[in-house]
Amino acid sequence: MTRLLVISPAPVIVRETTVILDVKFAEGMAAQATAWDGPLDNLLWEGAGQIAFPVEVERAALPWGLSTLPQGAPLPHGTGRDHDLVVASADMSGTLALAGPGRTPVVYTIEYTHRTRLDILALESGIAPLRRLRRRLWLEHQERRRRAAFRAAAALQANGYPAQLAYGGLTTDLHLYLDNRMTSDRFVQEDEQRARLERLGGDGPLRLVHSGRLDPMKGAQDLVPLAAALAERGLRFEFDIFGDGSLRDGIQRGIAARGLGDRVRLHGNVDFASVLVPWQRRNADLFVSCHRQGDPSCTYIESMGCGLPIAGYANEMWGPLCRESRAGWAEPLGNVAALAARIAGTPRAGIAQASGAAADFARRHDFDTVFHGRMEHLARVAARLGRAKDAQLQYSS
Fold first, then answer.
1. Could you tell me if 39 and 83 lie in one domain?
2. Which of 29, 77, 220, 310 is the most exposed place for a label (fewest CB within 10 A)?
3. pTM listed for this prediction
4. Distance between CA 22 and CA 185 in Å, rounded?
5. Where are the beta strands (DSSP E) in the chain?
6. Reported confidence tier of residue 391, pLDDT bands at 50, 70, 90
7. pLDDT, tens digit, for every residue of 73-90?
8. Do 234 and 322 fall into the same domain?
């Protein structure tokens, strides 16, 4: 049996006998513990003030071993020495010294590219020029460390096309995956899809939806201008926005100021599985994404799984995913006018066709398929390392 240690950036709040975890993370770890043939341990950092979608569980009831470190604490010397394989997020700079000769083999996971990190820095407001320069130099240094770590690692798991393209040449064993929460029971049903196609065949308003953090990084500042541009074009539409964040109050004020209250609704955060998924399956026709960064947001596959094609910006992730899936349209980054023209000018029949393509593509990348693909990859890595170790022992004897 291979002893596996998973080092994650997920938030955790420790109580006396319980821990509070992000529900998505807890579900994923429970699935890993069931699928892995051997002991599974997890290392997290404390310090989270709150968790948006929490689940509280008895620590003793967790099906995996959980250790925590204080907020900001470095990894202890010898981390991983009691395990046969370490899986660590390379989006955390504190894990980048784990891989190397004489150490426990490491499989890194990576989501953000260096370009995405620089884009995020560029969007941060209120930073003095000198501090921004220091942050930029720090990011450059960490990227050099990250690339060296990937060369020394046993394998790499890349979440999304941008990470695959940026780092695939640094390893001989790369596994691409498209992370999402769409289990088989969450996909759009035949009767829901029929109702959507009938709606698109009529003359009612086009039903638009957006979900995600209402922050500059996610492009939420473009939502109200986009709705205003659609109204100016004479499009009959309804636009429902789900989520919360730093821009929520400004978005609410913008809706009122532009007289859009009769067609744009702001809902706040809702539960993903019990509220958002069934609502999108039954009430929306097209997902709108103003996301400017190339991070591999789960929202793409999850919206597509609800039968929603996507009209969004051609960032590093949606651009290639749009081409691969044929499930929507990708317009130049930050070009609200172009995105509005695309939404208003696309025939309803084209939206209906893209709806079917979206659902079909998402089903090929459902949660179970993605999860088992990742676990099978780890098992292959462990088997390869075991064979190499046996050969080395045989040679030395």
1. yes
2. 77
3. 0.92
4. 21
5. 4-7, 12-14, 18-22, 40-45, 54-58, 65-69, 85-89, 106-110, 155-159, 174-177, 206-211, 237-242, 264-268, 286-289, 310-313, 328-331
6. low
7. 999 999 999 999 999 999
8. yes
